[in-house]
Amino acid sequence: MVRIALATCLALGAASPVQAQCRLCSTPATALAEDTPGAKVTVEIETSLNFDRLVVLGAGTGSAEIRPDGSRSSQGTVANIGPRAMVGTAILHGQPGRFVRVDLPSRIELYSLGGGEIAFDEVTSDLPSMPRLDSSGTLTFRFGGRLRITGDADGDYRGDLPITAEYQ
Amino acid sequence: MIFSRRVACHAALALAMGALATTPAFAVGPNQNANATAKIVKPLTLSWVQDLDLGTIVLGAGTWSATTIGITSGGVFTCGNTNVSCSGATKNAQYKVTGTNNQRVLITAPNVTLTNQNDSTKTLQLTVDNPGFVDLGNSGNSGLTFGLGGSIAVSSATVDGTYTGQFNVTVNY
Known about the structure:
- The complex is a heterodimer.
- By secondary structure, chain A is mainly β.
- Chain A has one domain: Immunoglobulin-like, CATH 2.60.40.
- Chain A contains 1 helix and 11 strands.
- Chain A has one helix at residues 2-14; strands spanning 42-47, 49-56, 61-66, 72-76, 78-81, 88-93, 100-103, 107-112, 117-125, 138-150, 155-167.
- In chain A, strand 8 and strand 9 (117-125) form a beta hairpin.
- By secondary structure, chain B is mainly beta.
- Chain B has one domain.
- Chain B is 12% helix and 43% strand.
- In chain B, the strands form 3 sheets. In chain B, strands 2, 4, 5, 7, 9, 10, 12 and 13 form an 8-stranded antiparallel β-sheet that branches. A 3-stranded antiparallel β-sheet of chain B has the order 11-8-14, with no helix packed on it. A two-stranded antiparallel ribbon of chain B has the order 3-6.
- The longest helix of chain B has 20 residues, at 2-21.
- Chain B starts with a helix and ends with a strand.
- The A-B interface holds A 40-45, 48-57, 64, 79, 82, 88, 90, 108, 110, 118, 120, 143, 145, 147, 149, 153-166 and B 28-43, 100-101, 173.
């Protein structure tokens, strides 16, 4: 009889009541989300930057500019920018809601097969000051810049514009 | 004792090399390269080389429907049917274009209205034979000459006289 009572007491002690969870008591998390191992921001080039055809008068100095909003202008010896000129477009893919830092070079060189070289500078984009991936984990932005032409430089020019993106 | 010093030195060297080998790399390469392209060309110039001439066309007697007399852009002349007879030197029109090497140049030349020099109310329509384009190849700087032809339709009702008109030729890359 004594043994049975002791066993009952032990059973009651082990089954302590479960407390209700307080959903308002925990401190909200404000820290940056941790990187998921192996997760990186990827950059997809949707359209390349293309000045199409530039008609250059004489051997002086001129420039052609395409801005991220698609507008274009020419100065100096550059008389005309072809109708198929277009801004570059890139898409970032990554973790939804994360802030990212995007680096574009301020200047690159474009080269022709004939050995010619022209400068592409004042690279600009329509990225906000704090770029952030949207809820689907993407961010699309457009970029343009200015082409500076000096001398008798006819030919087909091409250059690589490296785009680097990483989480902040 | 000497042996133990050598072992200690080797161990220290191995530790140093291990530390160098495990130094993290902070350089970040580009995620992607975007291409930037531009084609730079010289402005085109177009200059006249020679006029088109269909020679002298003599209309036959009687009443007959229209027949075509013409010359191709390549300079091949055709003289309708037996109702007309053609004589005199004939030639196509020619123009010279200069620009940038290895570029295709598009030619636009609408039809020309030829006016009778004795009676301006009498006209003939010259249907232009246009090659459409020329490829400059390596002749961009020195220039390339191309021809334009044309044909007219004459009938027994065509008023005689000298008919002239002007081509309106434009070229573009």
